[in-house]
Amino acid sequence: MSALERILKRSLAQEKTVSALTDEALEQQWGQWSFDLLRQRTTLDQVLPEALAFVKEAAFRAGGLRAYPCQTRAIIALLEPAITEVATGEGKTLITALAACLRALPKRGVHVATVNAYLSERDFEFATPIAARLGLTVGFLKQEQSHAEKRAAYQCDITYGTGYDFGFDYLRDQLALLKHAQHGPSFRLRNLLTGRKHPEAEVVQRPLASAIVDEIDSVLIDEAASPLVIAQPSTERTVPEAYLTAHEAAQGLHEGHDFILDARGRNARLTEEGRSAANQLPGIPWDALVRPWHQYLTNALNAHHAFHHGEHYILQEGKVVIVDEFTGRAHEERSWQQGLHQAVAAKEGVDIPPESHTAASITRQRYFRLYDSLSGLTGTGSESRKEFQHFFQLPVRPIAPNKPSRRQSLPDRVYRNRDTMLHAVAEEVKQRWLTQQPVLVGTRTIKISEDLAAILTGIGVPHRVLNARQDSEENDIIAQAGQPGSVVVATNMAGRGTHISLPPEALALGGLHVVGVERSESIRVDRQLAGRCARQGQPGTSLFFLSAEDNLIEQFAPDTGKQLARMAADPDGRLPDAAARLFSTLQSRVQKLRYAQRIQMEQRDRWMDQTRKSLA
Predict the structure, then answer these.
(1) Cβ-contact 464, 416 below 8 angstroms
(2) Which of these, 577, 518, 568, 508, lies nearest to 545 by C-alpha position?
(3) Taking the CA of residue 432 as centre, how many other CA atoms within 13 Å lie in the half-sphere pointing to its CB?
């Protein structure tokens, strides 16, 4: 019998005794354990079987919920430094709340990080009454909070927030401490005697003790390439004319002669001819430049050719707002650096914001390694088992679901071009809609979601769209996605964390039908989308539509796209099923490339840590 099963068995034996305790006795015993742990009179391992029965009883008394054995196994696994793999729909909100209560026993503070603010607030509201039964306090990091409110949230036993909230607060704290380079005992005494404010009063976080990260592969892998950055306004004057002139000049340059795009089409490089021509352009505001003129021009070329409206950014209230490529969410607090954000604004004809410089930054990988204890859960951890072990020394612990999966994964359909593929998707959706089977369509970008929505409107299929433009409506839209006759077209933001309820009529129709439009760079992201259906042993189906013009092909294997275009297709433009294997091969290749990039980031992080220690 494994250690996990022994704990489970001992805990189950305690449940009848625990259920007979009064609320006061429950809270009193919990407080005694905390007291003993603080004074090292006991260990969490020693009290765990009985404490586990306590948190399960608290959940029942607070909301009538009884944890399944599989959920209990996941709770135990979350107490280890490990990744707990729990299938979508297995009750991760309850699992996380109870694990957080157990982690909070030593009274050092537990941070529960989620992928978005909506899920964070939902989980906070769910956990609060359970924790209260044990005398524990729960805090929540809102997007708009005063310093005192944030500090109070961090003083709670358990604090819920998004991963980037925790990371940005850490960076702000470090900036506050940097203002007081010396803050040792003598410095604190001098402040006390003079009545000056102690620097630690300016920080909000306690020492980073324990973190549980929901959808941990999204936070630590998918978003690893996007470091957390705090920007401050530059002291250099931002002159709009420089960006506007570069924007106009870029439109007159020719690819292949004046500039070259890299294989992925993401970075432009001026040729000698292009650089020479750029320096001869009239109207260059030389006195206003804060960097070489060719860099302005390169930014303008990238803004035109590599950054696309509806894919990499949207416009909100006359501003360029970055869209996360993995989740489809808009992030107003983010901005591109070194003049790129200003170049995109010039391209779109909106107000050009002042430039900023980086005041503090940290990668998500490095931030979460600062915690004394780190664990997380996800439905798709096995694919990244080696990476979690390499970067964080965290093994992946798969937990068997409560009921076997009944999902049917239908063979991918591949088409010659994107337009033909989108019309095929619309026809598939229409046929399912005619039977009233609920359908969720997941797209890679906002533009594709809106292009498909236009086709569906044209053929008379009622639907709702969920992307960064409707972020605030997410809860309402997803709540209705399982109803008979429902059609929801969404970016990847709908693929994680939110619950889709299916009434008996929808289950009788075959359950939720998930349609994926394009394969993503990551196999895990596709699995997450497919995982929206067939939860808790329900029926459901998933089907992906691909084309020779998909982003995966255009960015990483244009020759493969040409090969697909030459293949014989049926009258509807559909290619043979064998074509789908090319996409799977390409995904594996891209994942290896991304892994190599994350290794480089980790090596840089470790070098910075070593440098800081040597200077300390």
Answers:
(1) no
(2) 518
(3) 33
Cα distance from N-terminal residue to C-terminal residue, the chain: 48
- The DSSP call for residue 394 is -
Pairing of the two strands 268-270 and 259-261:
antiparallel
Which residues contact residue 573 at a Cβ distance below 8 angstroms, ignoring those fewer than 6 apart? 415, 416, 417, 420, 421, 424
Predicted confidence (pLDDT) per residue in 181-212, tens digit = 555 555 554 554 444 455 566 899 999 999 99
Residue with the larger pLDDT of the pair 476 and 359: 359
Helices (H), 20-68: 23-38, 44-63
Residue-wise pLDDT for 144-182, tens only, equals: 899 999 999 999 999 999 998 999 999 999 998 887 655
List phi, psi (to 5°) of 522: -110, 130
Model confidence band, residue 88 (pLDDT cutoffs 50, 70, 90): confident
The residues near 347 (Cβ < 8 Å, ≥ 6 apart) are 247, 300, 303, 304
Question: What's the pLDDT score for residue 546?
Answer: 96
Q: Are 114 and 497 in contact (CB under 8 A)?
A: yes
SS3 551: helix
Kindly report, residue by residue over 385-421, the tens digit of the pLDDT.
988 998 889 999 999 998 998 999 999 999 999 999 9
SS3 sequence of 122-191:
HHHHHHHHHHHCCCCCEEECCCCCCHHHHHHHHHCCEEEEEHHHHHHHHHHHHHHHHCCCCCCHHHHHHH
Q: Report the distance separating Cα 350 and Cα 344, nearest Å.
A: 9
DSSP codes, 266-283: --EEE-HHHHHHHHT-TT
Which DSSP state fits 309? B
Amino acid at 71: Q
Radius of gyration of the chain (CA): 27
Q: Which long-range contacts (CB under 8 A, 24 or more apart) does 257-266 make?
A: 259/298, 259/301, 261/305, 261/306, 263/556, 263/558, 264/555, 264/556, 265/305, 265/306, 265/554, 265/555, 266/302, 266/306, 266/555
DSSP state string for 506-527? HHHTTSEEEEEES--S-HHHHH
Total residue length of the chain: 616
Q: Is 30 exposed, middle or buried (0-12, 13-18, 19+ CB in 10 A)?
A: buried
Q: In the predicted model, what is the mean pLDDT of the chain?
A: 88
Backbone angles phi, psi at 318, to 5 degrees: 75, 20
Question: What is residue 468's predicted lDDT score, i.e. its pLDDT?
Answer: 60
- List of residues 6+ apart from 460 with CB closer than 8 A: none
Query: 327 near 116, Cβ under 8 Å?
Result: yes
Q: What is the pLDDT of residues 532-588, one digit of tens each?
A: 899 888 999 999 999 999 999 988 888 888 888 888 889 989 999 989 999 999 999
- Provide the 8-state DSSP code for 205: P
pTM: 0.86
Which of 474, 587, 605 has the alpha carbon at shortest distance from 525? Answer: 587
Strand partners, 139: 159
